[in-house]
């Protein structure tokens, strides 16, 4: 029997793939048998990441906020991988920590452009090929900010909350054509950035841990293997879903 959790024959484009959760997902995708194309603005980081991942990985430097070039990116990615894109992971984003009353319209819009508008542009560019082949998976990386009221990140919270509506609408629209649309909502995941932020703010660290039933932080592989599942044949009847991978933080008290 073919392992339903394997991804042989799939090619995944991962935005923000050169580091952090994007790279963590890429590692798991490659281990599951997929080819990956890493997309980001920093060519040096992409090159290093692809080198680490080996021959199943390629990369395309690109700024996803150049909305009119979304179709071009899909073509370049398919050319780099030698096969059409069958999995799109909308992971790239920017963060803004600032009081709401000090957040300017331009700053708010920049966050929405990167997370929401660019993700829609890429999804719209990927869909015709996926629908034509009657096969594809689109994955959005949401956040605890999609569920919880977290202060000082009003633009980020708005963007990540928008993903919930996007995946449900897209799933309802395209699932009959063989394209599944899902989302992962990561909790607090170990990374140099997280440690830097929380080591300097021990009360916040304790607050996060105290409301996380599993009592710790996740690892990038926790998100990566959840992504593999949602994009694999094992999840062939799953669409429009949001999967929290958070140690219970979204339901903790």
List keywords for this structure.
253 residues; seven-stranded parallel sheet; 8 helices; 7 strands
Low-confidence runs of at least 5 consecutive residues: none
**How many E strands?**
7
Q: Between the first and last Cα atoms, what is the distance in angstroms? A: 43 Å
Number of domains: 1
Known CATH architecture: 3-Layer(aba) Sandwich
| Succession of helices and strands | EHEHEHEHEHEHHHE
Q: Which structural class do the helices and strands define?
A: alpha/beta
How much helicity do the residues have? Answer: 40-55%
How would the global form be characterised? Answer: globular
Your description of this structure?
The protein is of the alpha/beta class and 253 residues long. It has one domain: NAD(P)-binding Rossmann-like Domain (Rossmann fold). It contains 8 helices and 7 strands; from the N terminus they run E-H-E-H-E-H-E-H-E-H-E-H-H-H-E. It has a 7-stranded parallel sheet with strand order 3-2-1-4-5-6-7, sandwiched between helices. Helix 1 crosses helix 8 (220-231), helix 3 crosses helix 4 and helix 4 (105-133) runs parallel beside helix 5 (154-174). The longest helix is centred in the middle third of the chain and has 29 residues, at 105-133. It is globular, with a radius of gyration of 18 Å. 43% of the residues are buried. The mean pLDDT is 96.
